[in-house]
Amino acid sequence: MDEDARRNMRPLSLHVPEPRFRPGDAVDFADFDIPDVAAAPRPDIGAMPEEMRSLAYGLVRVLDLDGASGGAWAPRLSPERLVAMLRHMALVRAFDDRMYRVQRQGKTSFYMKCTGEEATSIAAAYALDRDDMCFPSYRQQGLLIARDWSLVDMMCQIYSNRGDRLKGRQMPIMYSAKEASFFSISGNLATQMPQAVGFAMASASRGDTRIAACWCGEGSTAEGDFHSACTFASVYRAPVIINVINNQWAISSFSGFAGAESTTFAARAVGYGIAGLRVDGNDALAVYAATEWAAERARNNFGPTLIEHFTYRAEGHSTSDDPTKYRSAEERSAWPLGDPIARLKQHLIAIGAWDEERHAAMDREVAEEVKAAGKEAEKQGVLGDGLHQPFTTMFEDVFEELPWHLEEQSRQMVEERKAAGI
Amino acid sequence: MNMIQAINSALDICMERDKDIVVLGEDVGYFGGVFKATEHLQKKHGKTRVFDTPITECGIIGVAVGMCTYGLRPVPEIQFADYIYPALDQLVSEAARLRYRSAGEYTAPMTVRSPFGGGIFGGQTHSQSPEAIFTHVAGLKTVIPSNPYDAKGLLIAAIEDNDPVIFFEPKRIYNGPFDGHYGKPVTPWAKHPSSAVPEGYYRIPLGKAATVREGNDVTILCYGTMVHVTAGVVAESGIDAEIIDLRTLVPLDIEAIEASVKKTGRCVIVHEATRTSGFGAELSALVQERCFHSLEAPIERVTGWDTPYPHSLEWAYFPGPVRLGQALKRVMES
Ligand SMILES: Cc1ncc(C[n+]2csc(CCOP(=O)(O)OP(=O)(O)O)c2C)c(N)n1
């Protein structure tokens, strides 16, 4: 094109997303559209993905904001099971609170809470079988807790102490628990997503019955690994549940930087021809129902489901983070979908299965349980006191057998520490 | 200035001087980066020149290549060097080779900044030193500053360089020099001569090492955090060592290395990265090839072990004063 013609054209401009509220801003979610619990149909588990596109853009809900339940997705769970779920959610929160505090006391190096997101892993774990394989990210401590994994074991990992089965090598919260069908957590985002698909493909090719599930944050859906996972899952109809926890923030970057201004995260499924559900992640019953539906679908060879759990990260990203530096402090309390524990509690009270006294007693009990586990774990040392593993363990597990160069380095380290008197 | 402020100042000055420079990366915009290296830049230069990106390192570098093709000079940040691996293909097969494969028609004048190294209880995915991987790739330059003054001058030179540069920032010394003793508080940079950083523009050419200390008995080759560990050990040892801070690994100041080793007749190489196929192996081969007849002792390598970085045992992993002191003793006694 010649220069003159170009001069008459309108200049392009670059769009850079901005979150709605920044520190100091008053928060107003009045225009936030919360669909009715009756709005989302529940398709047959064998339905074709294109028949349920609307579910990738809507919001599957069971509990309304007054604690009543309804709609096509309402799971029929006994009050006892609901109470058990509530208790596990409260236990996760108590665990987080204590571990956050011990990090602040210098007993360990790091911690990450999942406050506000407890339903996304507890209710999901309730809907899965105990031996379905989970490929978590770092905010799914609820999976282990729902599977009644030992709190002491988790704390020993956080303290990198003598009782840490991972030999003090992994950062706090990067658990690994094969017995609980819980994959070893990586610090590199989204790597677990294709791995879960691979597990599911292997299980299917062997004619097994175990399915797989994986979790990542909405920010992590930008990683190539997430898209590789979706492609493989779709192509091989892998029996896998791909969970995206949309907690609105990836460290300081709001969900718009992962694409939320243009579409939903559940809608990623549409392009891959996968079933996609967008779920109220603060509604434990909706999370349960969606996961149960996806698990049934996978178990019956109808393929993968991508579930977006729409929730809110109520606390900082980690102990290294100060959220008041990038978002309005009001967001947390103004969050229109409330708090998952409060909502389930309210529902249980509404159906006459719970009351404030029992709830307060439960809170005290879970706090005691966590405290007792903490004391037990601390008997085996805390990171703040120094090394708890024999330092030659550093060279173990790099390979199955110790090759000459590691043997030599191990010896050198022992000698050098002896010479230095340490 | 501390090292973060020096880096921030370099970015600010370059952005002021050249409108083609853009800064992009995870959390670099409004928040100013998780280590605060890009603080205030978005406010001053606008959000189309300093912006947050989706969490995809491969995307960040790929997009930067495209921006270079348009004529911009991007300075992408990879939040931790451990997360540069997803971007490897874009760096190795694309950015590094663009000039070569197009016979100079296209180039990738970008500077990839990334905090690296351990000593912060970051475990295996927040501690690695992957510099050797990049020095192995034809077409990439690799720069590692060891103090605020150098960080600013080298970063300006890197940004002005027309080749893709990997700029690794030793995060252990962002706030102050560090002698390698666990538990010893870091002395702030303010007390160090290199914190006298001019406010304005200056550059330190790539490919020029710095002699941190002159000496006659042994040459110690080091960079980044290890410069400070080395200086501390030498001061205590009474050995008349010559300490050379390489500053850039590619291009390497071979003249400075050769002249020093020929003078001292001994060579110790120090880096934090794992030993096998680490940059120390390259240095050792170069010294052997060029200074063989001057050597009075075998070359020593002091490095991290060939294991992933172990969270709670990181102080046994870190090549600190003990390991270095013993290597120095060995090389002086042989
Ligand atoms: C490959 C990779 N890049 C960058 C990081 C640094 N990082 C750690 S957590 C995080 C934000 C993740 O956000 P999201 O996926 O939304 O999960 P959330 O923390 O909100 O649960 C980033 C950028 C990393 N761990 N791995």
Summary?
Chain A: Keywords: Oxidoreductase, Thiamine pyrophosphate. The complex is a heterodimer of chains A (422) and B (334). Chain A is an alpha/beta fold.
Q: Write the CATH architecture name of the largest domain in chain A.
A: 3-Layer(aba) Sandwich
- H/E series of chain A: HHHEHHHEHEEEHEHEHHHH
Count of all domains of chain A: 2
How far from one another are the termini of chain A?
Answer: 74 Å
Structural class of chain A: alpha/beta
pLDDT averaged over residues of chain A:
96
* Total strand segments of chain A: 7
Specify the helix fraction band of chain B: 25-40%
Number of E strands of chain B: 12
CATH topology of the largest domain in chain A: Rossmann fold
Shape of chain B: globular
H/E element order of chain B: HEHEHEHHEHEHEEEHEEHEHEHH
The first-to-last residue Cα distance of chain B is 42 Å
Report the total helices of chain A.
13
Largest sheet of chain A: 5 strands, parallel
By secondary-structure content and strand pairing, the structural class of chain B works out as: alpha/beta
Range of helix content of chain A = 25-40%
Pfam families (chain A): E1_dh, OxoDH_E1alpha_N
Cofactor (chain A): thiamine diphosphate
InterPro entries (chain A): Alpha-ketoacid_DH_E1_comp (IPR050771), DH_E1 (IPR001017), Oxoisoval_DH_suAlpha_N_dom (IPR022593), THDP-binding (IPR029061)
Domain Dehydrogenase E1 component (chain A): 87-381
